[in-house]
Amino acid sequence: MRLPLPDGDFKAYLFDCDGTITDSMPAHYRAWTGALAEWNCDFPEDLFYDWGGRPVVEIIEDLNRRHGLAMPVATVAARQEALFKTGLAEMRAVPGVLAHIQEAYERIPFAVVSGSTRDSVTASLTALGLLHHFPVMVCAGDYARPKPDPEAYLMAARLLGVAPAECLVFEDTALGVQAATAAGMASVRVPPPWLR
Question: Are residue 158 and residue 106 in the same domain, yes or no?
């Protein structure tokens, strides 16, 4: 079943990746808890979902501040990504979003706009056989200001050559929807797994 879309003549679809294209948020949370356990750092599940869409580096820095820790950011980020990749074989696409991808592919240009690293996004989309659908990817490290800032979505629209007002964003987080709105784009909110 496809998600209902807002009215409009959209000329590009921009997708968040984790939790939007891929039902990967539970796998990411398991990877986070595994990586952080090595440093005795707690990351409550509700906070993990509240922080959805934030870059990994920013999350680790904030956890260090919250817990008075000095976890090495690059080390923890690499460990989290390695643990996440061990679960790729079980990853599935979000059905309501996958239906739109399949229906609009080659008719409407697509881009991925993610707070995850390019390596993580590439691995996820490859595992689902969807990488070739997304010639444009804007990932952590490609932009200076993360969601809810509109920078990443505006960059994707520019790379596709489509005006922001003609883009439709698929997002699963409040931060992502705020970024789309700030970019002047319509959006559709992908419900969390327990509401799908």
Answer: yes
Q: CB–CB of 44/141 below 8 Å? A: no
Nearest-10 Cα torsion for 99, 23, 172, 135:
-60
Chain-centroid distance of CA 81 in Å reads 14
Global confidence as pTM: 0.86
- Is 52 a member of any domain? yes
Overall domain count for the chain: 2
Is residue 60 in some structural domain? yes
Expressed as residue numbers, the domain containing 148 is 12-24+91-195
Could you give the C-alpha distances from 122 to 50, 105, 118, in angstroms and in order?
Answer: 24, 18, 6
Confidence band for 1, pLDDT divided at 50, 70 and 90: low
How far apart are alpha carbons 94 and 24 in whole angstroms?
9
